[in-house]
């Protein structure tokens, strides 16, 4: 379970499109034969790790750019990819 959380966090730091991965992971964990305690704990840890990273990214962007935003590069990167 810890390895899975680490892989999710690494994938999330590389691509913000990985926001969908925790939803898929939680769906899989719900249908696995784990105890209810393990299912709830893994979901809470997963949400906490991703939420913490989002708060960290937002705070750093606010310090650097002066405005509170989640992703510093998604706007121009998405526009460039569309061209």
From TrEMBL:
The chain crosses the membrane at residues 16-36. Keywords: Membrane, Transmembrane, Transmembrane helix. This is Uncharacterized protein. The keyword Membrane applies.
């Amino acid at each position: 379970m810890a390895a899975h959380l680490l892989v999710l966090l690494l994938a999330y730091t590389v691509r913000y499109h990985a926001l969908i991965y925790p939803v898929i992971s939680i769906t899989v964990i719900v249908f696995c034969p784990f105890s209810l305690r393990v299912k709830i704990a893994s979901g809470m840890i997963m949400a906490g790790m991703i939420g913490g990273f989002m708060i960290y990214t937002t705070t750093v962007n606010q310090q650097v750019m002066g405005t509170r935003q989640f992703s510093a590069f998604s706007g121009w990167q998405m526009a460039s990819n569309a061209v």
